[in-house]
Amino acid sequence: MPDAPLTISALGGLETETSGFPASQADRDKLLRSLRETADFAGLAKYNLGERLLDFLAESLRKPVADVMGEVWRQRKELRDVAKKGEDKRDVEGNVELFDHAITWELHPSVELQANGVQVGPTLTFDVKAELKLDGVELIIKNAWITRINAGRLTSTISLECKTIPLMAPCKKTIDLPQHLDLPGGGIRLGGEPRVPAAVT
Question: How far, in Å, are 31, 67, 80 from residue 184 at the CA level?
Fold first, then answer.
């Protein structure tokens, strides 16, 4: 895994050189054509918005995958139960194994074009769906924080639509996680009061 955080944008192939997952030029060209056609259909043909819309989407989706996982994992009872034991500053550590664990996450970024402070044309809203599947992953939880992810495999499918019309074929990737993946910034907080986790000095 690279040093930079793995993002939804990279998994979706929206980055040309990010996180070791470059989008192919052919796929990028197809997406640019779709975005340009979407803008043209909305009456914005004269603005040639393909590149700018691609940049907007890439920026909107630069959300670390670890953050997406954290949002979901905070809702899982077995993780909350382990986290509660470490909320009172005692050194409490637990392991949770995830087999064939699936996460679905959606985002609906929207953009409007303005000229001299006045909106031109309709607001364009995009629908992004990320399906993440973890297989054979072990989480190390210490003092209500996920501090490490042990080896496993991540399979992702990222879909992008505008008004239910697919703008690209679903982008699928499979990544073998390293033997030990230490999470930056102390990890993912599952519960308790915001504080620096014990693993961080």
Answer: 32, 11, 21
In this model, does residue 179 exceed pLDDT 70? Answer: no
Does residue 152 contact residue 97 with C-beta atoms inside 8 Å?
no
| Cα 62 from Cα 25, distance rounded (Å) | 20
**Number of residues assigned to the chain:** 201
Global confidence as pTM: 0.79
Specify the amino acid at residue 143: N
Pairing label, strands 153-162, 188-189: unpaired
Instruction: Please give the Cα distance from 63 to 67 (Å, whole number).
Output: 7
User: Structure tokens of 91?
Assistant: 């050194």
Which structure tokens are listed for 82? Answer: 């382990």
The token pair at 145 is: 């924080």
pLDDT for the residue 192: 55
Give the integer Cα–Cα distance in Å for 26 and 197. 44
Q: How far apart are CA 164 and CA 159, in angstroms?
A: 11
Per-residue pLDDT band for 19 (boundaries 50, 70, 90) equals very low
24 vs 51: CA distance, rounded Å = 16
